[in-house]
Amino acid sequence: MLRKWFGILAVALASVPGLGAAGAGAAAAPKRVVIIPLQTEVAGPALYLLRRGLKEAIAEHADVVVLDLKTPGGAIDTTFSIMEALGKFPGLTIAYVDNEAMSAGAFIAATTDEIWFAPDGVIGAAAPVTSTGQDVDATMKLKLTSYLKARMRAVSEGRGYRGEVISAMIDADSVLEIDGQVLKDKGGLLSLTAPEAMKKYGHPARPLLGAGIARDTADLLAQKFGAGGTVVTRLEATWSERLAFFLNGLAPVLLGLGVAALFIEFKTPGFGVFGIIGISLLAMVFLSSAVAGLSGHEPIVLFAIGAVLLGLELAFFHSAGFLGVIGFVLMLGSLVWAMTDLWPNEPLTVAWSADAFVRPLANLGLGLALALVLASVLARFLPHRLFWDRMAIGATSGGAAQTAGAAPGTGHALDALVGRRGVAATALHPMGQVEIEGRRYEAKVEVGDAPAGAPVVVRGRMDFGLIVERTG
Predict the structure, then answer these.
(1) pLDDT in tens, 372-412
(2) CATH of 393-470 among 3.40.50.2300, 3.20.20.30, 2.40.50.140, 3.30.499.10
(3) Is residue 160 within 8 Å of residue 207, measured between CB atoms?
(4) For 117-146, how does the pLDDT look when each residue is reduced to its tens digit (9 = 90+)?
(5) Are the C-beta atoms of 403 and 414 separated by less than 8 Å?
(6) Residue 413, Cα to own-chain centre: how many angstroms?
(7) Residues 422 and 434: beta-carbon distance below 8 Å
(8) Total-model pTM
(9) What is the DSSP string of 378-419?
């Protein structure tokens, strides 16, 4: 009985004007909203910016993402990538048509949960065309139109008339008829103004396409969630991001040049300009992918570990090689990782099954192929250049004792050289020749390397020659 009276009291309090709504408003936390502008042609930079915004929205547990659309259209493959990316956001997605969403823009808007319009907003005319705006081949157009209509029906399921309306924007031969009223006949493509998109049809009556008309995104959010009901973050592309978008398109070339520079560094004594250039070029590939919203912090760590191992190999362990190989593989792996479109909380198996690694691996393959071509050219022509002597690892003897001016088996003579001083006749990287008291001997520097002319001291001998240490 007591519970019944409490229930009646609660209903009575809620019916008092303003009291129930005020209590609910006070209890409700403001919605976290991320606004992502798409105010240009649908192309790579728009996709990168959108991905970054969506990933930040997911990481920050945003409730709503608003696309501020003003686009004449663009590349269909980029459009599909944007549509796929929008599907990864778990919250509410809203498209705000300010003031046009034509062609690819209409597809993107159709993927969102709600479509709002500026008072002068226009949407439509989404037939497939070539990159230059010309009509595609008739057979290909039939295939594309059929596919696009099916794709739009799939993303528009359960959203009123949206599937039929977008299909009428794609196919000139389709007819859109609702309540006995023909909205589009054969022979044209449907485009809608904001009032036309908001006109209601059917029983019960519902808008043709739009969810509302708002002066701007602030007005939209006020109508949707009430004044002060949102905390808004608006994403903007910086100049560095736009530069990164440009570099990202050059990823295979940068990869190839970077690997080729590291190849030259391996052939050069010490660590010098080619090593710096190589690592810098590979870092540019990584930077372009990271800034473009394709990676997190983990690839940075992997790249740094690889660079450290590679540096240790170049500085101290030329005879071993395994540290350099491991470091180089880790660096390449980090670059692939950085270029892979991974999403917060998404298992790696899901990304692999979705072919997220296809383009990064293709870029890596193209880069390595370019590096191989450049390395072949260098190996063919650089020996004729003046600085080749500093780059070549001398093809020294392999197993038997081979010392200049001495026959095999003269071990005692070599033992007598321990402690003697001389100079590197050729670069020791780590093997080459040294000159001691006017005679040349095959030699190997045990730690590091030595350029031609560097002073050395003999520390021991092996079957194929002397072991020396650089002294200056």
Answers:
(1) 777 777 666 554 443 444 444 333 333 333 444 444 445 66
(2) 2.40.50.140
(3) yes
(4) 999 999 998 776 655 555 556 777 787 788
(5) yes
(6) 62
(7) yes
(8) 0.55
(9) HHHHGGGSTTHHHH-------SS--BTTB-TT-HHHHHTTTT
